[in-house]
Amino acid sequence: MNISMDNQTAKNGGQSDILLEQVRLVFASVPFSATFIPIVSVLLSILLWDTVGHEAILGWLSAIMLVSLFRWWQYWRFQAAQPLPEDTERWWRQALLGAALSGLSWGASGLLLFAPESMPDQLFLTFLLVGVIAAAVTTLSALFPAIMFFLLVTILPITWSFFSLGTNLGTVLAGLFLFFMLLMLKTAYRLNSILAETLTMRHDKVMAEATIHHQALYDELTDLPNRRMLFDHLGQEVARSFRHGYLGAILFLDLDNFKNVNDSLGHALGDKLLKAVAQRLSQRLRQEDIAARLGGDEFVILLSEIGKDSSQASVRAQRVASEIQQLFLEPYRIDGHTLYVSASIGIVLFPLDESDPGDLLQRADVAMYRAKEDGRDRFRFFQPAMQKALDTRLTIEKGLRKALETDQLELYYQPQVKADGNIYGAEALVRWQHPERGLISPVEFIAIAEETGLIYRLGDWVLNAACEHIRQLSAVCPLVVSVNISPKQFREPDFVNRVRDLIVAHRIDPKLLHLEITESTVLDNIEQTIERMEAIKSLGVSFAIDDFGTGHSSLAYLKRLPIETLKIDRSFVSDIVDDPNDAVLVETIIVMAKHLGLRTIAEGVETREVLAFLEEKGCHNFQGYLFSRPVPFQALMDMGGSLLPDEMPAVKLVQRVV
Ligand code: C2E
Ligand code: MG
Ligand code: MG
């Protein structure tokens, strides 16, 4: 069943499902009535043999037999056909025809077998007809037109016969028959309504169950199998491949730059693109392969039995991956837009070891990431070396969770120095005090925290700890503390409120809190970013763009951002003396910042030469090993706002509070 069909179709489909059930009920009664009717008809004929003309009896009996045979024949055809909802109308007409013929033959008895001069025979006939009518009401009421026609054609002739007797009794009986007909019609109508209601309820329940089942196993947007169904199939496929000695493969596919489509053209169009991709993928697969959607722009293709050994399987998997890439060569045309989309694919073969579906998907995911790192629009096989990286990642993820719970994180601070030699601020840099490994650099775990979502808790911890430190510092020497905010953390809906709450809770001067965001955070969604930055700025907090120069910033948006500082990336700063390109770039950034009314700070200042160059070009804020490495908070407090002159040979540092 396809749950994506529109409501009207579903409704019409539902109605014909119910009507077919009603037709089925009518046919289900045929064996009983088409057996019972010939028997009673013969009995009636015997009873009336002496009073009614033999030709009439035999003629009527033949009609009854023919009709019964016809109804049996209809019944067998119906059973053999196993009709579908689309055949409903045809079988509805057949059911009506059977009921009409049966009604007509019984109606004929009211004229042909009516013995005007024999009251007992009239009673026999009446008695039998009433019985037949009562039986018909129970069996034919499922279809109201059928029972209505049956009642009219069976009752009216005998009513007429009684009426034609011209006696008072005859007229009374005719009246009674008419009354009986109305009563039966009403009963049939009620029965029909109850039946239709019951069938509708049953149908709705079945449909609801089918929908729930479908939703549980299929992706709503693309109607492809979802993660759960993929896991089930993959589990079965792994077991089957083990048994039969075959290899299969998983292709983990992620669209390149899909986010840009969503951001620039809207989610509705993004959804249409995903649907179109799903359609192309499923059209190209073999019957036995499965394309599933894991969520977002991630698809998985499960190829079963593609080789007896890994080299054969690799070649085939590679061929399918190339074919899939070919699929993307043709642009997608959606709502007047021509979209060029590519995909990065990670491939893993199975079963090469005891891995379960979860492990396999994770490996394919890792290989897909490698394809992205290597430049996108390509495929990569999973390699054992990637497994090592994956294991490390998992260990870090697990450890970091524990670190957050058991307070193993610590904030270090790296002083930020003015051209005149004063420390005016410090950047908070998180460190992980691992019980076995010692101090771990954020380079090792921030990216993993981002990927796994742990960054929310980690970022919040950092912000809270930094605010607490600002408060403590305020008593000794108020420094502006810069806190790195990851893109995910910045996007958190409650982020602005959280910043406000922390400022209030720690009773700090918001001017002492400075947030560093990266170009990627800004580019992610410029409008939303600006709105959010404005809200935070209105609290009194300022912003810097960190690692400036590594992203794809444009002047156009830089002008609109409510920032105060550009932080020139270390990679350019460290090479300015040797690399003329970097020197030009850094100089350009400084000039541009000046024009925009922004401050610049150079990070990674390690030598006096670099410092001299920067000063000459007009950069007046510095951070780097030349001044100080990041130090624990207590050490920053001990510095009391200045570095000892012998630790800082290039510039004179005196304690001065900003
Ligand atoms: P970042 O924000 O660009 O921080 C500057 C990094 O450069 C720091 O590395 C710092 O120790 C290093 N650095 C500063 N001066 C020098 C120098 O003269 N020479 C050299 N070679 N390096 C220098 P760290 O502490 O390892 O942090 C690395 C990155 O991790 C940070 O880069 C930042 O992106 C991220 N990070 C650190 N703490 C946090 C945090 O609390 N939250 C978030 N989201 N990211 C953080
Ligand atoms: Mg930073
Ligand atoms: Mg930086």
From TrEMBL:
One of its GO terms (biological process) is cellular response to nitric oxide. Its EC number is 3.1.4.52. It holds the Pfam family EAL. Its cofactor is Mg(2+). The keyword Lipid biosynthesis does not apply. NCBIfam families: GGDEF. This is cyclic-guanylate-specific phosphodiesterase. It comes from Thiolapillus brandeum. The lineage of its organism: Bacteria, Pseudomonadati, Pseudomonadota, Gammaproteobacteria, Chromatiales.
